[in-house]
Write a structure and sequence with these properties.
The complex is a heterodimer of chains A (390) and B (258).
Chain A lengths: L4 H8 L4 H17 L19 H24 L1 H36 L13 H4 L1 H9 L10 H10 L1 H10 L1 H18 L15 H27 L1 H22 L9 H7 L9 H17 L13 H8 L1 H21 L4 H31 L5 H5 L5
Helix pairs in contact in A: 2-3, 2-14, 2-15, 3-4, 3-10, 4-7, 4-15, 7-10, 8-9, 8-10, 9-10, 11-13, 14-16, 15-16
Chain B lengths: L1 H6 L1 H4 L34 H8 L2 E8 L10 H4 L1 H12 L4 E8 L5 H15 L3 E5 L2 H5 L4 H17 L3 E5 L14 H14 L3 E2 L1 H11 L12 H21 L13
Parallel strand pairs in B: 1-2, 1-3, 3-4, 4-5
The chains are: A mainly alpha (390), B alpha/beta (258).
Chain lengths: 390, 258
């Protein structure tokens, strides 16, 4: 977000607002999905198909990363671009640790106020508090990742290893995509993943999810132009639509066992389990189908996107890291309200709406700050010595 | 959609198992325990249990972790395994029902495997009820390892000639945002479907109770009364599911699964 304001200003003219729009929507969906037992959850993507907001977030993050740092690498060289990527990675790491502090606050609160004979087993979650030395260290190492805190560590790894991939993408985009695909295939063949604490491995396997990130980057660096005819072909659109309907039917059988006949055994044996950790191919296809439909519905340069209706989502998408973190915090807060005060349906709706409203307000505030920085007089040199940003 | 179903209590406040055939003597389940029929919808039969009921002798083994027991001196009598034995005996007059348990808190599915294998091989119960998933979710066990352990356990029970019912996690509103049950609940549903065995969806039943205000699962009371009633209801609903699935001709309600 803070990459060289001068360049950012030059870029705004050609910035594809659709990316911000869909990323903003994805952030809202992630927020809603993170509130357990929330009726508003039922509008989110994951209930109607295989993929969910995570795919959108990772793909668009790859796209924008390539867009921003690709230009930096072309104009200023590998070292400068790498330095910027790593700086951004560091910011995300700090944001993750900030969220972890909030998690610690929440779990400590629960530990204080929870003692029910029914839930002796569930209390085990509080055991982490008994050995903070280990837990906090493992969290700093990104090995201990409490519930709903898996996306940022994934993002950190993806971005941290992005510079060499970006270098290759700029030299030979197809080769880079092939390398990424090969890594994905090897991950599936050998079951590679990163270790986690206290057990198991990462919920979002970076070796799998990098494929979507690199695919996004590849699209940003000319891939979309290459695929333009394919994407707008009626055959592609029809295939995508059929696949989306088929996924919808399969998902419905999860909620209504009576519909189980829709998925014959032979098909079930092939498609299940649809793995999120390893980014199942069926999930990728579902996301790509969604993307094809979305790109055709909202073509590049569509004027309607400037309408105030889309502004709230777009402004959230433009400050994705901050708004993502705020969303995680707000989902904790919403769950707190739902359990401590009332879990009635109107309250669930109210909490969801209030959360989104706060996300939009915060994003507008950030935009306002950004404009101040851009328009205002240059800070005196002393501010720089004091650690201020240029 | 479950949330929507839960929001319409009038539409679906049917006692699970009302569709049982006539002529079967059964005690009425208390109003407390009633849940939407769809919550306990089960498509799969328990042929071995059916035979055991016909032979007037039903042995059930419950393998579980901490949420299959209650603390305190009377805990064993009040926990759902004992309540299940009561409910089954009431509903199956003339059948000698014996429920044995292999329950210890803090065990993952994999931890339970050796005990489960040994017990089914030795006692050859007609039915194994396997309660698991909570500790795996707490320790964030690799979902694949969890599934593999489930498959091994179900296979071991089937090899010994026992029927199997899987029981998933408790609904716990306080820890809901701290423990990610999702993956593990999915695995259990998937394994149950794969083996065509019933899944007792404890999570959704308890969630419904909480939403309807049947039980206040959020209170931080140390008193045992709610916990006891919850376990009593679980025992009764589990008995309904078992008896329903052991009907001649298969599951209740009958659903074609190809």
């Amino acid at each position: 977000m803070k990459e060289a304001p001068i360049q950012a200003a030059a870029l705004t003219a050609e910035r594809d607002l659709r990316l911000d729009l869909f990323r903003g929507l994805a952030l809202w969906l992630i927020f809603l999905d993170h509130i357990p037992s929330n009726i508003v959850n039922w509008i989110t993507l994951r209930n109607y198909g295989f993929s969910d907001a995570t795919e959108i977030f990772v793909f668009i993050s790859g796209y924008t990363a390539a867009f921003v740092y690709g230009r930096a690498m072309r104009e200023r060289g590998f070292v400068v671009a790498t330095a910027r990527v790593l700086k951004r990675t560091w910011q995300i790491y700090v944001a993750h640790i900030f969220l972890f502090a909030i998690y610690l606050a929440e779990i400590s609160y629960v530990a204080q106020s929870f003692d029910n004979p029914l839930y002796g087993e569930e209390m085990g979650i509080l055991d982490f508090l008994k050995q903070p030395d280990v837990t906090i260290m493992q969290a700093l190492l990104l090995k201990f990742k409490p519930v709903n805190m898996d996306v940022l560590p994934l993002y950190i790894v993806l971005l941290g290893f992005f510079p060499p991939m970006l270098w290759l993408l700029l030299r030979n985009a197809s080769l880079a995509l092939a390398v990424s695909g090969a890594l994905y295939a090897l991950m599936w063949m050998f079951g590679w993943n990163f270790p986690a604490y206290p057990d198991g491995s990462w919920v979002f396997n970076p070796l799998a999810w990098q494929l979507l990130f690199v695919l996004g980057a590849w699209c940003a660096l000319g891939g979309v132009q290459r695929l333009a005819r394919f994407i707008s072909s009626p055959v592609t659109i029809a295939l995508a639509a059929v696949y989306l309907v088929a996924c919808f039917a399969v998902v419905m059988t999860w909620y209504f066992p009576r519909l189980a006949f829709l998925v014959p055994r032979a098909v079930a044996d092939v498609i299940y389990p649809i793995d999120k950790t390893g980014l199942d191919v069926l999930r990728i296809l579902h996301f790509l189908s969604l993307a094809v439909i979305a790109v055709n519905l909202v073509p590049f340069g569509w004027r309607g996107i400037k309408s105030p209706v889309f502004r709230p989502a777009i402004v959230c998408g433009q400050h994705s890291l901050e708004i993502f973190c705020l969303g995680v915090f707000l989902s904790f807060a919403a769950h707190f309200v739902l359990t401590e005060i009332s879990s009635r349906i109107p309250v669930q709706v109210l909490c969801s709406l209030a959360g989104i409203l706060l996300m939009v307000a915060a994003a507008e505030l950030l935009s306002w700050y950004k404009n101040l920085d851009r328009k205002g007089p240059r800070p005196p040199v002393q501010a720089d010595l004091a650690g201020g940003e240029i | 959609m479950r949330g929507v179903v839960a929001a319409l209590p009038g539409a679906a406040l049917l006692c699970a198992g009302l569709a049982l055939g006539p002529g079967l003597a059964r005690a009425e389940t208390p109003a407390d325990c009633r849940v939407a029929e769809s919550q306990l919808e089960n498509s799969f039969a328990l042929p071995r249990v059916e035979k055991a009921i016909a032979d007037k002798r039903l042995d059930v083994l419950i393998v579980g972790a901490g949420s299959s027991q209650l603390p305190g001196a009377k805990g064993t009598v009040q926990a759902y395994p004992a309540r299940l034995q009561n409910a089954l005996s009431e509903k199956l007059p003339g059948v000698a029902v014996k429920v044995t348990t292999d329950v210890k808190s803090g065990r993952t599915a994999r931890d339970m495997l050796p005990g489960l294998k040994a017990a089914v091989a030795a006692a050859k119960p007609a039915l194994v009820v396997w309660q698991t998933g909570t500790v795996d979710a707490l320790r964030i066990v690799e979902p694949e390892d969890f599934s593999a352990a489930l498959v091994k356990g179900v296979n071991a029970a089937k090899d010994a000639g026992s029927d199997v019912v899987l029981m998933n996690m408790q609904y716990s509103p306080r820890t809901e945002s701290l423990i990610a049950l999702g993956n593990y609940a999915e695995s259990m549903r998937w394994v149950a479907l794969q083996f065509e065995i019933p899944l007792f969806d404890r999570f959704h039943v308890m969630k419904l109770w909480n939403e309807l205000g049947t039980f206040d699962l959020y209170s931080d009371t140390k008193k045992m009364d709610t916990a006891e009633r919850v376990h009593d209801c679980i025992g009764r609903l589990l008995a309904d599911l078992i008896i329903g699935a052991a009907q001649p001709g298969g599951a209740v309600p009958p659903i074609e699964v190809k």
